[in-house]
Design brief:
946 residues, alpha/beta, Alpha-Beta Plaits, 8-stranded mixed β-sheet, 30 helices, rod-shaped, binds 2-acetamido-2-deoxy-beta-D-glucopyranose
């Protein structure tokens, strides 16, 4: 068995060649690259612009701590002073509060129209009658329960005072001693309870209200003057048997929807549990759903402490008598610095935008992989000796570096323009995350590339993946992540989808930077990964595992499906199987290859015998031995199976050019496809340099050159770059390489005028053709296949090309298909005429002409009156003459060679000229074309008959 690696270029040579080609390709692609890189820049700029717009909106005076122009010095000069006291409620939130004011704590009391009354859905008769609602005089109801009812009754009774105890000169303290509340809603920023400046009266809770129950008060809260009224509201305390009864009553009182009659709100409820003289154990119900007008902030807990104070005060009085009191004079907020309203857009919107930015690389990689597949460039490279290892390594490294450069630009740019998303999170975490993700993405692209054959479909699917993943992530997946009740295991399952794991990672970054920004701390640090709420750790693990799995699967599928090497799905087990059969004992595996020798084609059967003979020899000089090769395309859609090649045997030695002639559809291209490994033979096989095309295609590729029927070229690379690349693949280096490329360019007439340095996409059809031929010959391959090499060439370049091929065939075997008889005659040492999937005849051109020609063609043109004379003349020369062509005075006859002598013909024409006018005449030997037409017609007629 021949060593496939002998004489072939090393892994690193191939890698080097591919890398250089890719770099040149990239250089050509600069516009595309700029567009690619500018996409994240554009998105970042958009974010920054939006951010600036939002900031400008937030920085309006109405959103900042209020200021006024006040004559503080009393000299008529206006001084600008800012602060809490000059702000409205919206502005107040941003003011600094270094010394927060204390203010009297209030109870939350339901509005009069919602207070609890007797209704049919609450089974208690101790509630007031509904009539109080119309007068607005309904009492505020408190509910009580506990294990010891007598104790509970005592406590409840002392909670609600019976009279107002007001000292007008000390209003603040009076508010603390009495039980006061409000039915206004609280605000988010409670530097002062909104009840004091809402204009509504303060509500004083007493067990009984006298008729004139309104008093006016005025006091200062931290130098803010508060003016107002205090109204009386009756407090009603009712005992219930258990806490579940209380719960039920509270629940039924809920303001649900708008049905007014179903509302029965209770002020507060107390459960004294197992309290006794020695211990006080209480649980308090309060309503947390009071909202301000914009409906966003739940009740500030500022209205709750008073409720607690009431209960503890009552217990203290139970223990120590009515004289004792816990005075709850004021509550205060924590001091705070002045702030600005801020909204970090990059953290909010960033996740979606950045997901798109990073995913965007996927279709780019995918289409470039599929492009090489669609244009068959991958197989072309493979046929010229590029192994899968170097291809994978370099392509992978190439895409990885593009991705990394892209990400680097993205992160640097984002950081420079000040997006917190990048600046606040630890850069090393970001690096690790992006690095792992781009690797996963590249391997995914390799995997996906195996499933597409068209660049367009792959691009469409790629971009659907990009935008779909982003949108699904932002509008579906994110809600699951935020919903803490959603099972974490399912989140992990969803993260197995790479788009979501990317989204999750970016989401974690944005959350970290958002909270870091609003708390004034930092974003994500390595330490945060151990936090169970932070999903980054799982994402990283998932991505690493997926990366390894995907890259393995992608390589496997590539090997089995698309590389053209025709490996079996279990190729990696081959090492353990028996060695593939080699030339040494080929007879063993020629199962059932009965050779049908048609007796009327002695030359073909002779060739078959020669092949049989050669196969038995161990050391054959033949470069190519084709052994009964067959190809059948299975029938589709009811059509019968098509026999493209019906058992072809052929041997081509080194230094020989074998020409294959045949009408279109005869199976020539099917034959070449099998020989270069594009399709597998149905049965039979062929040996190239002793290597079997079924099993050792990889080895064959290293000593093979192909000029395919359709030019497989990179549009953006120049002719010289193509040759440099394939030359390097064929192990040419340094000056040998440059020289080979120069010579090659010159030989195919692409050297002059700098044509070799123009992009192949700009070449004319003929120039592409010549470049393809040059590629197939560079690097001295031992076997070359040329599929119609001279199609579309002008006569000058064609003869030029012929010289190239003639020179090239000195030390190699060439199989050439062509439609040009002239070409076949000039170039080929032997010819085979291939019709309907089998060879009809084989031999060198002279032999063929002698065998199938055997006649002269005699042409004569006269006026139409003398046609009969010409006919007579010919019949006289040879009674077996055959008229093959006749049109207005011009006639063509076939004269069997053994009937006529050329001298007789000349004599006869001289005689004729004296009798009538001969415009023109000619005598020609049979051409190859005549042979071809004859053989092809004969074979087809035979096939029609059979
Ligand atoms: C209930 O409380 C009262 C007043 O403290 C006390 O006298 C009585 O013993 C308590 N009853 C029970 C069953 O503990
Ligand atoms: C009212 O408050 C003032 C100031 O604290 C105090 O001097 C006065 O004695 C109080 N009056 C009553 C009746 O408690
Ligand atoms: C509540 O307790 C009272 C007095 O002990 C009793 O009459 C009434 O049936 C109880 N109600 C319920 C619903 O248990
Ligand atoms: C609590 O307050 C909200 C808002 O005012 C109200 O809709 C709801 O009915 C109240 N709930 C109870 C149990 O009173
Ligand atoms: C307070 O009451 C709750 C509910 O009955 C009970 O679980 C808890 O042990 C009590 N605490 C004390 C200190 O008695």
């Amino acid at each position: 068995m021949a060593d496939p690696s002998a004489g072939s270029s090393s892994f690193w040579t191939q890698a080097n060649a591919l890398l250089r080609k890719n770099l040149t390709y990239q250089k050509r692609n600069i516009k595309e690259n700029i567009r690619l890189i500018s996409f994240p820049f554009f998105l970042c700029l958009l974010l920054v612009l939006l951010q600036a717009l939002i900031n400008q909106q937030l920085d309006k005076p109405s959103n900042n701590c209020g200021c006024q122009c006040i004559d503080t010095a009393g000299d008529g000069q206006c001084n600008k002073v800012c602060g809490l006291e000059y702000s409205d409620i919206d502005q107040a939130a941003t003011c600094p509060i270094p010394n927060p004011p204390g203010f009297p704590p209030l109870l939350q009391i339901p509005s009069p129209e919602y207070r609890a009354v007797r209704t049919d859905f609450v089974p208690f008769t101790d509630l007031p009658d509904e009539s109080c609602r119309s007068s607005g005089s309904c009492p505020a109801t408190f509910l009580f329960t506990g294990n010891n009812q007598s104790l509970g009754q005592i406590l409840a009774g002392s909670m609600i005072p019976s009279s107002l105890n007001w000292n007008a000169s000390n209003a603040a303290e009076s508010l603390a001693i009495n039980v006061d509340g409000s039915d206004t809603y609280t605000q988010t920023s409670n530097f002062l309870d909104s009840a004091f400046f809402s204009g509504d009266p303060i509500l004083n809770v007493r067990s009984q209200c006298s008729s004139n129950s309104t008093i006016s008060v005025s006091f200062l809260v931290n130098s803010v003057p508060v003016l107002g009224e205090v109204n009386c509201v009756q407090g009603l305390h009712l005992w219930r048997n258990s806490s579940s009864v209380v719960n039920d009553e509270l629940y039924k009182g809920y303001r649900k929807g708008n049905s007014e009659e179903k509302i029965n709100e209770i002020t507060a409820a107390y459960d004294f549990l197992n309290s006794n003289e020695n211990s006080f154990n209480v649980s308090i119900w309060y309503n947390s759903t009071y909202k301000n007008d914009s409906g966003q902030a739940p009740i500030a807990l500022v209205r709750v402490p008073r409720s607690v104070n009431l209960a503890s005060n009552a217990y203290l009085q139970f223990l120590r008598g009515p004289g004792t009191n816990i005075l709850f004079e004021s509550v205060k907020e924590m001091p705070k610095p002045g702030t600005k309203l801020r909204l970090d857009l990059s953290s909010l919107l960033g996740t979606l935008f950045f997901t798109w930015v990073i995913l965007q690389l996927f279709p780019v990689i995918l289409t470039s992989l599929v492009y090489e597949k669609e244009q068959r460039l991958r197989i072309m490279m493979k046929m010229h000796g590029l192994g899968d290892g170097p291809y994978w390594m370099i392509s992978y490294a190439y895409f990885l570096s593009i991705s990394l450069i892209y990400m680097l630009c993205f992160v640097i740019f984002g950081s420079l323009i000040g997006l917190n998303f990048f600046r606040m999170n630890d850069y090393s975490i970001q690096f690790v995350f992006y690095f792992i993700y781009v690797n996963l993405q590249i391997s995914l692209a390799f995997l996906a590339a195996a499933m597409f054959s068209k660049v367009k479909t792959s691009a469409v699917v790629g971009y659907i993946f990009v935008f779909g993943s982003g949108l699904l992530g932002g509008f579906l997946f994110q809600f699951f992540v935020q919903d803490t009740s959603f099972p974490r295991a399912w989140i992990i399952v969803m993260e197995l989808y790479p788009g979501f794991s990317l989204y999750r990672g970016l989401y974690e970054f944005s959350q970290a930077s958002f909270t870091g920004n609003s708390l004034g701390t930092h974003g994500m640090r390595w330490g945060d990964l151990s936090n169970s709420v932070n999903g980054m750790k799982e994402v990283l693990i998932i991505m690493v595992v997926e990366w390894l799995v995907v890259i393995f699967v992608a390589y496997y599928i590539d090997q089995v499906v698309s590389s053209g090497s025709g490996k079996s799905p279990l190729f990696f087990l081959q090492k353990f199987q028996k060695k593939p059969p080699s030339l040494r004992n080929p007879s063993l595996q020629r199962q059932g290859s009965k050779v049908f020798v048609q007796m009327e084609k002695p030359d073909v059967s002779q060739e078959t015998e020669k092949v049989e003979q050669l196969l038995l020899e161990s050391n054959s000089s033949s470069a190519i031995i084709v052994d009964n090769l067959k190809k059948v395309y299975p029938g589709r859609d009811g059509n019968p199976a098509k026999f493209a090649v019906k058992g072809l045997s052929l041997a081509v030695t080194e230094g020989e050019c074998f020409g294959m002639l045949g009408p279109n559809g005869a199976g020539k291209t099917s034959f070449i496809s099998m020989m270069i490994g594009l399709t597998k033979p149905t049965s039979g096989t062929a040996y190239v340099q002793g290597m079997n095309i079924r099993t050792q295609m990889d080895g064959i590729y290293t000593s093979m050159g192909v000029c395919p029927q359709h030019d497989l070229l990179w549009e953006t690379l120049t002719g010289r770059e193509h040759l440099l690349f394939y030359g390097r693949l064929k192990n040419l280096k340094g000056s040998a390489l440059t020289q080979a490329v120069e010579e090659s360019l010159k030989s195919v007439n692409l050297f002059n005028g700098g044509v070799g340095d123009k992009k192949a996409g700009k070449y004319s059809g003929g120039m592409k053709r010549r470049l393809s031929v040059a590629i197939s010959l560079i690097g001295d391959p031992k076997v070359v296949y040329m599929d119609e090499p001279s199609t579309g060439l002008d006569p000058a370049s064609r003869s030029n090309l012929w010289n190239v091929v003639k020179r090239a065939k000195q030390n190699r075997a060439i199989i050439l298909t062509t439609h040009s008889m002239e070409e076949a005659e000039v170039l080929c040492d032997r010819l085979g005429i291939f019709v309907d999937g089998s060879l009809q005849c084989i031999g060198n051109p002279k032999e063929l002409k002698a065998r199938y020609g055997g006649s002269y063609v005699f042409t004569m043109t006269t006026s139409s009156d003398h046609e009969q004379d010409v006919d007579n003349l010919v019949r006289h020369l040879s009674p077996n003459a055959n008229k093959i062509y006749h049109i207005s005075g011009t006639q063509k006859f076939e004269l069997p060679k053994h009937d006529v002598r050329i001298a007789d013909v000349f004599q006869a024409v001289e005689n004729a000229k004296s009798r009538f006018t001969v415009f023109a005449w000619g005598l020609a030997d049979t051409t190859l074309e005549d042979v071809f037409i004859k053989v092809a017609r004969g074979a087809q007629a035979f096939n029609v008959l059979s």
